[in-house]
Design brief:
Shape: elongated
GO molecular function, one term: chorismate mutase activity
Enzyme class: isomerase
Oligomer: single chain
CATH topology: Chorismate Mutase Domain, subunit A
CATH class: Mainly Alpha
Mean pLDDT: 98
Distance between the termini: 45 Å
Helix content: over 70%
CATH architecture: Up-down Bundle
Low-confidence stretches: none
Order of helices and strands: HHH
CATH superfamily: Chorismate mutase
Strand content: under 5%
Pfam families: CM_2
EC number: 5.4.99.5
Number of strands: 0
Number of helices: 3
Organism: Erythrobacter crassostreae
Length: about 100
């Protein structure tokens, strides 16, 4: 288990923490994309896949979380924009494959 960021005293410890965090992020994204597969299975029409109101809500929630955590909200907004658009593309692909 990696040290907490404030406990790191060497770049080796920092890099180990970053690497562990990246593995955890991929695991969380794997779960998130699992929900996209579920959404593709559940949504009755292809038009229901893209929901601009939901997209805005998800991005705004992430920005608020970033602000509360004291990390750069503009970076989080950019990341979440790509994440949500990638999720929508993934969901479209899964929706189409399920109904072939």
């Amino acid at each position: 288990m990696a040290l907490a960021p404030d406990d790191c005293t060497t770049m080796l410890e920092v890099r180990a923490g970053v690497d562990e965090t990246d593995r955890e992020l991929v695991a969380l994204l794997t779960r998130r994309f699992g929900y996209m597969r579920a959404a593709a299975r559940i949504k009755p029409t292809r038009d229901a896949v893209r929901d601009e109101d939901r997209k805005a809500s998800v991005i705004n929630a992430a920005v608020k979380e970033a602000e509360a955590a004291g990390i750069p909200s503009e970076v989080i907004a950019d990341i979440w924009e790509r994440l949500v658009e990638g999720s929508i593309a993934y969901e479209f692909d899964k929706w189409d494959r399920i109904r072939k």
